[in-house]
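Backbone shape codes:
***
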Amino acid sequence: MSLRSFVTSALTLFWSLLTTVVVTAFCLMLVVMAIQVISRYTLGLAVPWTDEVSRYLFLAEIFLGSVLALRYQEHIRVTVVTDLLPARVAHLVAALADLIGIVVLLMLMGGAWNMMERTAGVFASTFRMSFSYVYLMQFIAALLMVILLVDQCQRHLRGKPVISPAKPWSD
């Protein structure tokens, strides 16, 4: 097995695992919220951990799902102006947008790192999980998006199209 095919296989596995994590977080969030609603309105019991667990699963879904949305070029875009530009100028504007996104994500990573340090000893009120994990997830998602945007930016600067890989859910 060549290095190139190994890296390709590893990346394919990584993106499959990330997709599985996001879908699993969504499904678990639905189950936990169903437990919350059923226990509260049918049984008259409040299950205190369901609120926090569903919130953490929602955050995992949003942060990690945004990485997948960026990878598959699924973020919302308004392209009225850029569609009117010549191809070379459109690529430069897209590269500038990528650079702005990278700067914002780097600032987000700095804030997430700071909050991880500050909340390392702070735990959820209904179960033993440090708040720092929420910020770790935010940090990892921002880092992955920076990597994707750097690749996307260099493609724009070279005048190459940014091609979205095949979506595993579109088969």
User: Anything to note?
Assistant: DSSP finds four helices and no strands in the chain.
